[in-house]
Design brief:
The protein is of the alpha/beta class and 366 residues long.
C-alpha cells in the first residue's frame, strides 16, 4: 500500500516543534505498518507567509505544491492530511488529487474539534470566513472520505469520522533519570504557552500555599520551559504574587537540555485551562510525553487513557487555583524509581501510534 502524508507548518525546526514531532511519529508508524509513505510538507516560516495565508484570496498551499501532489498521487492508495486552514488552496489541492486519481482515499486529521472558539482575535476572522466558504464545498464534492477526530462525533461537516487518541512514538523518548531532590518538589510545565495551558492557576495556587504555610512549607518550585503568547502574562502574575524564587522561566529547550529539566523534576504539569476554549475532554500530547519519560503528572480535563491512572492527579476544569498541598501529599506517596519504569511500560502498551494506524488502514481498505 502506498500513501502520501501532507503537512504544513510555520516552524521549520521539526525537532523543537511538538506538533511536528507528532507528525513525524505518525509517518514512522505508517512505515512500521508496511506502508510506503511519502512525506510532503509546506513551510510557511517567512513573515510574509504568515501575513499572506490570512488574506482572503491567498492560502496555505502554493500552486507548485499542488502540482507536485497531483503527480505523486497517481499510484497512491490514500492521502493523509494534517489540518491547517481549510481555504481555497486546500479545496484546489483536494480536487486536483481526486481528479488525478479518482480511487484515492483522503483522510484529514482535525486535531481539535470544535475549534472556532480558539480563533478569538480580530486577525483570525479571515480564517473563519475562509473556512465557512470552503468546508461545505468539500463535502458537496465528496473530496474527503474521512475526518480523523479525538471526539465522539460520528460525522464532522457531513463527512464520516475515524476516532483516534493522541499517541506518540515511545522510542523517541528516553526514560527520565530520577535526580530530583527528595526534600523539595519540582514541577515542570513544557509548552508553547497559550491561555488554555492555565499555568496561572498553578501560580495562584502556589501563592495561596506559601501564604498559608510560610516557613513550614515543603519547598515547591515550578519550572516553566518554553515560550509563547502567554509568557509575559505569566511573568506579570509571578511578579504580583512575589514568587520569583519559586517560579522559574527556563526558556525554550530541546534534546539533552530538556531532558535535564525532566530528570530533576517530580511532577509534570498538563493543560489546566481547557475550559477557556470550551473543552471538557482533551487528549494532550504532553501528558503522553510525560508518561513515556516516566514522570507523574497532573491534569484538569477528561482524558480516558489517564482518568483512573495511579500516576495522574486530576483537578477540576475551571478557574480555581490549584491546591498545591494536594500535590505535596500525593507526591509523598510516590516511589519515583518504580513510577518511571511502570509509566514507561504503560506508554509502550497504550500510547504508541501503531494501534491507531491500523484503524486508518482498515477503513481505507474497505
Amino acid at each position: 500500500m502506498k500513501g502520501i502524508y501532507i503537512y504544513s507548518s510555520n516552524d521549520k525546526d521539526y525537532k523543537a516543534n511538538g506538533e511536528a514531532k507528532k507528525v513525524l511519529s505518525q509517518v514512522k508508524a505508517f512505515r512500521k505498518a508496511g506502508v510506503e509513505i511519502e512525506f510532503l510538507d509546506v513551510i510557511l516560516d517567512r513573515k510574509i507567509d504568515k501575513v499572506l495565508y490570512r488574506m482572503p484570496f491567498s492560502g496555505v498551499y502554493p500552486k507548485s505544491f499542488i502540482e507536485k501532489c497531483e503527480k505523486e498521487v497517481l499510484d497512491a492508495d490514500f492521502v493523509f492530511i494534517r489540518k491547517n486552514i481549510f481555504d481555497g488552496t486546500y479545496f484546489k489541492l483536494l480536487r486536483a488529487m481526486k481528479r488525478a486519481n479518482p480511487k484515492l482515499k483522503i483522510v484529514v486529521e482535525i486535531p481539535t474539534y470544535p475549534y472556532f472558539q480558539e480563533w478569538n482575535r480580530v486577525i483570525d476572522r479571515p480564517l473563519i470566513w475562509k473556512e465557512k466558504r470552503v468546508v461545505p464545498k468539500v463535502a458537496a464534492d465528496h473530496l474527503v472520505d474521512y475526518y480523523m477526530t479525538l471526539t465522539d462525533d460520528k460525522e464532522i461537516f457531513g463527512i464520516p469520522t475515524i476516532k483516534f487518541s493522541n499517541c506518540i512514538d515511545v522510542e523517541d523518548y528516553t526514560q527520565k533519570k530520577c535526580l530530583q531532590n527528595k526534600d523539595e518538589i519540582h514541577l515542570i510545565g513544557v509548552a508553547l504557552l497559550a491561555n488554555w495551558h492555565g499555568f496561572d492557576r498553578l501560580i495562584n495556587g502556589m501563592k495561596d500555599y506559601y501564604q498559608r504555610n510560610g516557613d513550614n512549607a515543603t519547598k515547591v518550585v515550578f519550572h516553566i520551559v518554553g515560550d509563547g503568547p502567554e509568557l509575559n502574562n505569566y511573568k506579570k502574575t509571578v511578579d504580583q504574587c512575589k514568587l520569583n524564587r519559586y517560579v522559574l522561566f527556563e526558556g525554550k529547550h530541546k534534546g539533552e537540555e530538556l531532558d535535564h529539566f525532566y530528570d530533576i523534576s517530580n511532577i509534570g504539569i498538563g493543560s489546566l485551562g481547557m475550559y477557556r476554549i470550551g473543552l471538557e475532554k482533551a487528549t494532550s500530547l504532553k501528558l503522553r510525553e510525560y508518561c513515556a519519560k516516566g514522570i507523574p503528572f497532573i491534569k484538569a480535563s477528561d482524558d480516558e487513557v489517564f482518568n483512573d491512572y495511579e500516576y495522574c492527579l486530576s483537578f477540576s476544569n475551571d478557574d480555581e487555583p490549584i491546591d498545591i498541598q494536594k500535590i505535596v501529599d500525593w507526591s509523598a506517596n510516590i516511589d519515583y524509581d518504580k513510577a518511571a519504569k511502570s509509566m514507561r511500560e504503560y506508554a509502550t502498551l497504550n500510547l504508541d501510534w501503531g494501534r491507531y494506524i491500523q484503524d486508518i488502514l482498515n477503513k481505507i481498505e474497505t
